[in-house]
Amino acid sequence: MRGVFCILLCWLAGNALSRLTGGYVSGNIVGMVLLFAALSLRWVEAETVRPAARFLLESMALFFVPYGVGLIDSYHVILDNLWAIVVASILSVVAVLCVTGHTFQYINRKQSKKQ
Amino acid sequence: MNGFLASDLFLLTLTLALFCLGGAIYRRTRLALLHPVLLTFVAVIVFLKAAGIPYVRYREATQLLDFALGMSVVALGYLLYEQVERLRRNLWPVTLATLAGCATGVLSVVHIAKLFGTERAILHSIAPKSVTVPIAVSISEPLGGNVAVTSVVVFCVGIFGSIFGEWILRRGGVTDPEARGFALGAAAHGIGTARAIEIGVVEGAFSGLAMALMGLATALAVPLMEKYLY
Predict the structure, then answer these.
(1) Which pTM value belongs to this model?
(2) What tens digit of pLDDT does each residue of A46-92 get?
(3) Cβ contact (<8 Å) for A69 and B155?
(4) Scanning A31, B9, B39, B165, which has the fewest C-beta atoms within 10 Å of its C-beta?
(5) pLDDT score, position B1
(6) Are B184 and B162 in contact (CB under 8 A)?
(7) A57 and B72 in contact by Cβ < 8 A?
């Protein structure tokens, strides 16, 4: 239960910070950074958070089912823009794969050569 | 009867039942296109249509899942912490690859879609298409994007990346295991990471790291890019 508490507390603090900064980034994302910081600074032990975090991460796919079911009302939005969405997404995935892969590989090799 | 079928408890139980069933079918067939989540989307939609239950009612009934989704974004902080050693040892490649991937991911999808004359609400919905669904939804919703479109597009992107990612990387000349894992996580988030874990331990770890960092970088960058770059 303490793990759940830590996660909720980080989320709550994240929401508060998000409001103070005019909602630039949503509270749960700030909460993610806060949880990472709390773990890194050893304010909480990893073992405390692990069971709750593992459960949430493993079941994440279930949690967004209600959003996807939203297609029932907005499928026409996708159909109206089908080609734009399909072409843009596929090209973009190829671009992201190649750009991140090559950036990582290039810098990593350069660094290992130096050492 | 309809009151029972439209009750919170029934709809929640049904969703979980279909999700577990989808998982069982997926494990049997091993077809990436029959992903349990995709099967659940379709099965729930068919059920709601058949029973004449409006989507609004379903959303109300499954608010618990919404709340858990918010919590799971916070839990990504734990995932990031687990990889903190790898992050420290590979600080430069990781940082620069994340920034490059984030900029490429958002700007390419938005500008290509713009060529088709797509309206702004759709651009907002698909801008975070390379990051994990809960974060993508948290990015597109405040901007006025359509979260149903976001979750489905992001999801399909993940499936596409997990099926063709390795082949694209090989053709593209990315051969180091660390770089391959990182690219899979950056382009295809959780689903790409699941695939990377099957390929190998190093690939899987870097993929998880990429997923968490891409989510964070994109969440920070999209509101700015939205103002100045598209």
Answers:
(1) 0.88
(2) 999 999 999 998 888 899 899 889 888 888 889 999 999 999 999 99
(3) no
(4) B9
(5) 61
(6) yes
(7) yes
Option in B70, B104, B135 nearest A99 (CB): B104
Q: Do residue B104 and residue A100 have CB atoms under 8 angstroms apart? A: yes
A106 Cα to chain B: minimum distance (Å)? 8
Tell me if A101 and B169 make a contact (CB, 8 A cut-off). yes
Residue A8: list chain B partners with CB under 8 A: 71
Q: What pLDDT does residue A114 have? A: 74
A51 vs B contacts (CB less than 8 Å): none
What are the pLDDT digits (tens) for B98-110?
A: 999 999 999 999 9
Interface pTM, i.e. ipTM: 0.89
Dihedral angle of Cα A74, A78, A81, A82, to the nearest 10 degrees: -160
Question: In whole angstroms, what is the distance from residue A99 CA to residue B195 CA?
Answer: 19
Q: Taking the domains of chain B in order of start, what are their residue ranges?
A: 1-61, 69-229
Residues from chain A contacting residue B153 (CB–CB below 8 Å): 78, 85, 89
Whether pLDDT at B2 is above 80: no
CA–CA separation, B23 and B36 (whole Å): 5
Cβ of A82: how many Cβ atoms within 10 Å? 11
From the CA of A14, how many Å to the nearest CA of chain B? 9
Which bin fits B45, alpha (ψ -120 to 50), beta or left (φ > 0)? Answer: alpha
**C-beta atoms of B223 and A46 within 8 A:** no
A7 CA to centre of own chain: 15
Residues, chain B, total? Answer: 230
